Task: structure prediction
Amino acid sequence: MSNVSIIGAYNTKFGSFVEKNRETGEIKDTKSYYDLLVEAGRGAIQDAGIEPKDIDGIWIGACSPSLFVNQEHVGPLGLEVAPEAFRFVPTTRAEGACASSSVALYNAIYGIESGRFKRVLVIGVEKMSLLNTKEVTHVLACSSHWPSEGSKGMTFPGLFAEYAKGYQAHYRFSDEELRKMLATVSALCYRNGFENPLAHFSKGSPPDRLGLTTAQAILDLPDEGKGSNPMITPPLRLHDCSLISDGAAAVVLAETNDAALIGQKVVEIAGIGLTTERLAERVRPNMYELTAGKESIKKSFNEAGITIQDVDFTEVHDCFTINQILSTEALGLSKDGQGGWDYIAGKYTSEDDCPVNLSGGLKSKGHPVGATGASMHALAYKQLIGEPIGVAPAKGQPEVGVVFNIGGSGVTNCTTTLKRIK
Result:
């Protein structure tokens, strides 16, 4: 148990904050990287009910700001949240691909546990939409093993397609069975996302207008043309992939004993698990499960003194629909090989004992990669303090939530067990 708690959180709206002129190719930035970072940081401090002067350290998670927005050395940008109060405060930037801001969060926890820091601000931020799809694909490929993957034209849809193919082969699913499993996951995330006002695909978004609330509606989409569901990398299609998004999120951490004195909105970080898999997929066995993810979950649960039966909801890393199924199995919610069937059976909705991705997940909420970990923690925190953003568990206010955030193709695995302080 870490003796560290979250005392405040904020999530910006996720979306594509640019205006693109298709005729001229001109791109106008309507909400910048810097705007998003500052908004999230100020929002979290305000939510915590403290003053900027009370913060004595800042960690920022960012995946690839140099390639997305031509900005390195992003730690000092945290000072702009409160320039006068934060001048001379130490800042650190953490990078762990799509788990960058969970890694930042863990480093902040270590800082508080060391005794050098008392109250810390953690921000996750990414601005992706200034680039076109081909450019974004290249930036993300830089988080793969470049010699054997990125340089050979392997993309992240391709990397997770390898997991999908391995899963299908290992459990001997037909193409039709796997496709229905994946579409069911996508439809669940869309339904939840439509109720999340901060989601990239919230109410009124294209999937909502197309009525993609059931697996069958997704399966019925044409393979090409307007409103289609084209194949990206077999067996993954467009609606199996998360979104290119802009956004930021932030949390404020404090010692639990100190946090209890600050206010009533205290959620304890009861256990964390950080594991790392070998970067190149070609050297890994078991490409049908998240092996390192399972170890991360085991560490977090052991530290928190819980089992999966104690968990009231979970936010998992559905960068692709196959990964939501693999994550559900890694957590122990479903038996290995059974996750897809459980989704088809209607499990993991808000009515279930343990809902999955009430936020809409990366599939619907959006996936500004450096912000994703902080966002998952921020929205889980809001669920636990009884201030849910979007869908809440039908059975009432939860007490235990779990965040499972992944960087790369199952490489950097971060599992956080969160407990509401009564």
Residues 4-133+244-259 form a domain with the Peroxisomal Thiolase; Chain A, domain 1 fold (CATH 3.40.47.10). The mean pLDDT is 97. Residues 101 and 206 are 29 Å apart (CA to CA).
